[in-house]
Design a protein that fits this description.
alpha/beta; eight-stranded parallel β-barrel
């Protein structure tokens, strides 16, 4: 039995977009299930911003996407996550990973060690241990782990409710399937969409780098077709083949994703 479709928007409080509570309410009104917040110092931090978004909405799930483990004390951030989950009635989703390479600069700015890959992954595990302790015998705080390498995927498969695939946008469908086919059925798999049709937003082009061109030709997991019928068919195909059921887009692509949200929501 496949996981039901879930749709999310990735956004953060940035200058010029309007009040952050209004952004959260717009995501909820558009029918998306989740609002995900990246972590980019020195922009407003994800945990504080998540709390504001939760307070501004009624049914929207809100989560970090994702916190970088070297920037956070495991016991302190697990206390925050448990608090947000408890006070929101279970609408908070705690996303964590080892951090992108450029997080090293954030760590330096904050005066904390970045650490080796193994140390950062161990910190993810320590944080999840602390969250389990904070939750105790009460409701479980949903956990999302960003993972792409073998060790991170093993940890995520064991501990996460959702795995956000952190694989190259240049990966072939066969390479992606080799990863997803090894994941347990109980885990929800999430994939980030950076382009729909011919629309590759400037931020996505910067993030994707040399992989920004030829997304459609490679059938990259970072891309979806622009025609609404083809878009929905592609989402169904990816769930059937890869087990991916949670798809996230930037706020710039909300309108392009709307047909799928309307047709496939909760199916």
């Amino acid at each position: 039995m496949p996981h039901p479709f879930r749709f999310g928007v990735t956004a953060m409080p940035v200058p010029g977009q309007g009040p952050w509570p209004d952004v959260a309410r717009a995501v909820e009104a558009a029918g998306f299930h989740r609002l995900f917040l990246p972590e980019n110092h020195p922009l407003p931090d994800g945990m504080t911003s998540a709390g504001v978004a939760l307070g501004a909405t009624v049914t929207l799930e809100v989560g970090t996407f994702v916190l970088a483990s070297p920037l956070h004390d495991p016991r302190h951030v697990s206390w925050q996550a448990h608090s947000l989950a408890t006070t929101s009635g279970g609408r908070f989703r705690f996303g964590i990973g080892t951090g992108r390479p450029d997080v090293a600069a954030d760590a330096e700015a904050l005066g904390v060690p970045f650490g080796t890959g193994s140390e950062r992954l161990a910190r993810v595990a320590a944080t999840l241990d602390a969250l389990d302790a904070a939750d105790g015998s009460g409701p479980h705080t949903p956990v999302l782990v960003a993972a792409g390498g073998p060790k991170a995927l093993r940890l995520a498969a064991d501990r996460a409710d959702t795995i956000a695939l952190a694989i190259s946008p240049g990966a072939t469908p066969d390479e992606a399937e080799a990863i997803t086919s090894a994941l347990p059925d109980r885990v929800e798999i999430a994939s980030s969409i950076f382009a729909i049709g011919d629309d590759v937003p400037p931020f996505a082009r910067h993030f994707l780098g040399p992989h920004a061109d030829g997304l459609a030709e490679r059938d990259s997991l970072a891309w979806l077709p622009g025609d609404p019928d083809d878009l929905c068919a592609k989402l169904i195909e990816r769930r059937d083949r890869f087990g991916i059921s949670c798809f996230t887009v930037s706020s710039e692509l909300m309108d392009a994703m709307a047909p799928a949200v309307q047709r496939l929501r909760d199916r």
